[in-house]
Design brief:
It contains eleven helices and twelve strands. It has 317 residues and is of the alpha/beta class. Keywords: Ion transport, Iron, Iron transport, Signal, Transport.
Length: 317
């Protein structure tokens, strides 16, 4: 979720005794935020995995990262040489004050900590907007590339990504799907405007679900509450309605497999009273996506390439 956009301007050590400002050697713009530094930042802290993935894709290395389980393109960040300071949700302010980073990235889970980090170092919010997935990914990638002098590399990777997406869209032509976010034995259908509904834009699959009413609160209700029970019943109705459309494919993101890679849903979906009777399950047209890639890392440059390759590999050529 986006925090309220702020105009940020940091010019470190750029004003001499005469009060005359020198031009910045590093200028990072994103939305209506602007970070200006006298030198290209070397000590970078990143608290958004999609941003970390994009920086990594552009050969820009972070030095400070949150404590989490890094996989795939980011697996090297498990090494002790990278400083761990806080979590994906809460950066360790005390530790960061001691470490004195040149630049801090927040986004997504950590976006709300922006203002608390600004007194420590130049801080910018790079939260993805997955409602305009590809356009937003290109903007974020090129903004980073421009600031860090990686434009040619970014354009090359984005061109390859476009080509891969077109290949996948050829595979999904005239095919429908339902994105299911599984938590335990509950399977929640995601429409195009839901959290993981970007899969339809990304892959070209046609959604069989009507758009979700966004006028209601998206705050997760307390477990066991009346609101939680009502939401569960609503999800069951939506699931039944979706399956009546006989989608060609089911795409399953198993929350329980995050950091574990143990996909209980591979058996659970067969035993589910509704899903187990669906043609997609009977015909083995179920795509179980990598939970860490889709749930934790999300809309990064290399990570999106992995997502598309994963979907492509599960489809007929």
């Amino acid at each position: 979720m986006k925090t309220k956009a702020l105009i940020l301007s940091f010019i470190f050590a750029s004003v001499g005794m005469t009060g005359v400002a020198h031009s910045a050697n590093f200028d990072l713009k994103h939305e209506n935020q602007n970070i200006q530094l006298k030198q290209v930042p070397k000590k970078i802290a990143v608290y958004d995995l999609s941003t970390l993935d994009t920086l990594n894709a552009l050969n820009i290395q972070a030095e400070i990262v949150p404590v989490t389980n890094y996989t795939g393109h980011l697996a090297h960040y498990n090494q002790a040489r990278f400083i761990k300071a806080g979590s994906l949700f809460e950066p360790d302010l005390t530790q960061l004050k001691q470490l004195k980073p040149d630049l801090i990235f927040v986004g997504g889970r950590s976006a709300k900590t922006l203002t608390s980090l600004q007194p420590i170092a130049a801080t910018i919010n790079f939260s993805p907007n997955t409602q305009q997935y590809m356009q937003d990914l290109k903007i974020r990638s090129l903004n980073l590339a421009q600031a860090f002098n990686r434009v040619d590399l970014a354009k090359s990777k984005l061109k390859a990504l476009d080509q891969l997406q077109q290949q996948v869209k050829q595979q999904t032509q005239n095919q429908s799907a339902v994105m299911l976010f599984a938590v335990g034995d509950e399977y929640m259908p995601h429409a195009a405007n839901d959290r993981f509904g970007f899969v339809y834009e990304l892959t070209g699959f046609k959604s069989v679900l009507a758009l979700t009413d966004t006028s209601t609160s998206k705050t997760r209700p307390e477990a066991g509450s009346k609101e939680a029970l009502a939401l569960k019943q609503q999800n069951e109705v939506r699931l039944k309605d979706a399956l009546q459309q006989n989608p060609d494919y089911l795409i399953v993101l198993d929350r329980g497999a995050v950091n574990k890679q143990n996909y209980a849903t591979k058996q659970g979906i067969k035993e589910h009273p509704l899903l187990g009777q669906s043609e997609a399950v009977k015909q083995n047209r179920v795509i179980f996506v990598d939970a860490d890639v889709w749930y934790l890392t999300g809309a990064g440059l290399d990570n999106t390439t992995f997502m598309l390759k994963e979907i492509s590999a599960a489809l007929p050529k």
